[in-house]
Fold this sequence. Notes:
The chain is mainly alpha-helical and 309 residues long. Helices cover 77% and strands 4% of the residues. It has a single domain, classed as Up-down Bundle (Rhopdopsin 7-helix transmembrane proteins), CATH 1.20.1070.10. It contains 11 helices and 5 strands; from the N terminus they run E-E-H-H-H-E-H-H-H-E-E-H-H-H-H-H. 37% of the residues are buried.
Amino acid sequence: MEPKNLTGIPEFLLLGLSEDPELQSLLFGFFLCIYLITVAGNLLITLVIISDPHLHTPMYFFLSNLSLADTGFISTTVPKMLVSTQTQIKSITYAGCLTQISFLYFFGCLDSLFLSVMAYDRFVAIRHPLHYTVIMSSRLCGLLVLISFFISLLDSLIFTLMVSQLTFCADVEVPSFFCDPLHLLNLACSDTSKNTILVYFLSVIFGGVPVSGILFSYTRIISSILRISSSGGKYKAFSTCGSHLTVVCLFYGTSIGACLSSAVSSSVKKGAVASVIYAIFTPMLNPFIYSLRNKDIKRVLCKFLSRST
Length: 309
């Protein structure tokens, strides 16, 4: 079969998670519930933070932006999967695939950068508590969010342009429920060695730099906490970082697992399961982690729900 340019191919075929009709009905209901819970949970946290003046602090400002990014991240893949499962139409157009890749990497990079910014916020709060309000001013917080936005946009554009330059054969069956560039590289008919190097290089830059910042921040945070004499002070300091550290481990653990599964494992099902955990379960668990471990969020949330009732 002769390779030809992707623009000559009208659509991709997303194979999804299963072809069993009975199992697809269960998957539709299951992922619909997860999607609704995720969107409602993240939007509720954002609404609670906006509505209560006591939560208008840098930490909760970044948390509200993280919740919005999580909502966009899961909305990039799940609605298309739900429609495909219900209608049995698994095709996606070339433009639709590029659009999905663009938003996927934009919101994914935005998540990563917001977690890094939140680690810096906790670093300043614990290392320099007396100067916290001066350092983490509203101007700096807005600037950090704006920089994260433009870096994520750059990451998204680079990956989208890279995929648009690939050459594919006539039949393009993607063994996933969304357009994953790692799978598309394996399906391309042209030489993808340079593209593979570019993917790993970008992953190191856009993923490794935020991770390095988080590790540096928590190394200094832990050293500061260990110098606190009272056990109550240590517990209070650790509790302010517990939710964020849990989300960091969940986000990067699942993302690294998904990448390694796609690169190393030959099993399509294992790669699909890893992608589900990374792209769907992580955004769903974030609001629960922050609301269940944060007394301020729980207090305002109970007040908000009682007032609404």
